Please model this.
Amino acid sequence: MSAVLSAAVIALCVWLLAIVTDRVFVVALDAISDRLNLPASVAGASLMAMGSSAPELIIALTALFRDGGAHSDLGIGTIVGSALFNILVITGVSAMVRPAVSRVKVVLRDGLMYLASVGALLWAFSDGSITIPEAAVFVGLYGVYLAILWFWPRDEDGPARTDGDQHSADQRSADQRSADQHGAERVPAPLQAAIIAVMQVFTGDPERNFVRAFVVALAAIAGICWVLVDAALIFSAEMGIPPVVVALTILAAATSVPDLIASVIVARQGRGEMAVANAVGSNIFDVLVGLGVPWLVALLALGETVVVGTDGLWWSTIALMSTAVLLMLFQITGRVLSRVEGAILVTIYAGYVIWTWVGG
Model:
């Protein structure tokens, strides 16, 4: 398979993932959330975060179990690269569309938890291997985050409109789902409709048959991600670059594009802080669950440590920590993420991609 053909397969897989995730998986998760009557903040940080981060999570699992874990860096790189894309591009572009007003308490809550998750990642990378206690720390930290959200005062929960008006948490959740659907609708309608029709042969109505839709969509995402990992490995071999470079840039950005579209729509509606908060919350899920759960599953199944090659990941993780601090400073100073600051974040990402490819 040539580099051009493998790149085309990567693009096709990402396109299919966007449809299956947004139009089936997220709909089923939303129905499950409603049935469980979860607070919007907890639902957003758990089930809805799982929906938006499902491709990265499955890629991490798939890469970890391929060839005895020889390609684990591909999954880790996708998570780390996606987190950088979220922090720099999604928040940056959203702020460029419309500046986001920030509330310091919410910024500190999510920002400090995110810094703790990246700190845990650096700690886990320090010896080049992952053990069961280290993986358990990741999952445990996410449990702490959910507990914080559960007991967080509801009047301070979630982002505000930039014009100063407050939305209820339930309305914000509905707004985000609407934005996700608008993002998916950018796919050509006939092709999208055909794929959804095929999916619904197996799932039925995702809102009514949400358990079956959840299982079928998860299986479909797993299958697509398996092909995606294959194509990424072939592309990296044909181009003569390390797979981790492809993961940190191409896979990471491609799997995050639907979130970018949804965030831009939300920002245009005057809810820029919501776009920023969702990006940070998604990153917390990506790092703690997207890595912690695959590591824990592999360790329990294989009964040995998971070796990670950190040569191509260490400095990207340092960049993740640095950009998280920078974003918090931008939000706290003046309590607004301005268009200029958004442009700075996007420029930093462009520099990061160039540095990664040149270094790779």
